[in-house]
Amino acid sequence: MENKTALITGGATGIGRRTAMQLAAEGINLIINFRSSKNEAEDLAVELTSRYRTKNICIKGDITLYEDCENLVSEALKVFKSIDIVVHNAGPYISERKKMADYEIKEWDYLINGNLNAVFYLSNLLIPYMREQKWGRIITVGFDRVESAPGWIYRSAFAAAKSGLASLTKTIALEEAEYGITANMVCPGDIIGEWKEREIIESLKEKDDSVPVGRPGTGEDVSRVISFLADENSSFITGSVIPVTGGKDVLGKIYRGI
Questions:
Q1: How far is 24 from 153, CA to CA, in rounded Å?
Q2: CA distances for 71 relative to 83, 111, 122, 170, 240, angstroms
Q3: Whole-angstrom Cα distance, residue 37 to residue 62?
C-alpha cells in the first residue's frame, strides 16, 4: 500500500516537530509547513528523509492568510497526489496577560484567524480531495476543558478561538463521516519549552509533583495520540476531544491565580 501523506502546520519546531518525527517513523510522507523557521524545517525534512526513507518537503506559509493556505495546498499537490492527514498544530498565542477589552483589533484578528479560521481555510481546501478518495484524517489541537467552553482569564481570544474550534471539529466529524473522514481534537496539558520536542523516556528521569502522574509531559505524549488518530484502523474514533494532561487540572491553577 502506498504511503499516506500528512500536512503538519507549524511542523518545524515544538510539538509539531515531534509529531513530524513520529509520523515519519511510521512511514508517512510529510509536508512540513512553517512561517519563519525555514532552517529548522529544511533540516528536519532532510533528516527524516535520510533516516526513514520517506518523502518529506517543507513549504512556507502563514496559515492566518487564506491566500497562503491556497498556495500551501497547491504547492504540496505538485509533489504528492493527495494530502491524507492534516495536523492543525500551528496556533498563535500571546504570552502577555491581557484582558479582552485591552486587545488591539489586529491582535484579536491574528489569534482568531490563526486558531480558528485557518482550520476552516485548510479544511475547505482539502476536504473535497479527501471526499474523492473516501479517506481522511483531520486532527486539531485545543486545550484542557476546551469542550466545555470555559472562561480563561487573560486569554480571551485564544480560548474563544479554540472553543469554537472544538465545535467545528465535532461538526466536521458528523458532516464528513460518510466519506471515511474523521476529525478529532487533541488537548495538551502543561508541556512547555524544550519538553515540547523531547521523548517520554527523558521525562521518566524527572519528577514533577504538580502533575498527578509525577513527571513532565512531552511532545511525544501528544504525538503518540496524534499518530493513533491518524491510523488506518482508528476510523471508529471521530468527534472526540482527547486531553493529554497527565491528570493535571491545567485551567484550575489559572483560576487560583497561579
A1: 38
A2: 14, 21, 11, 27, 30
A3: 12
The pLDDT value given to residue 257: 46
Q: Is the pTM of this model over 0.90?
A: yes
- pLDDT tens for each residue of 35-44: 999 999 999 9
Report the pLDDT averaged over residues 49-53.
95
Q: Tens digit of pLDDT for each residue in 156-211?
A: 999 999 999 999 999 999 999 999 999 999 999 999 999 999 999 999 999 999 99
**Strand order across the beta sheet in which 241-244 lies:** 56-60, 29-34, 5-8, 85-88, 136-141, 181-188, 241-244
Instruction: Give the CATH number of domain 5-255.
Output: 3.40.50.720
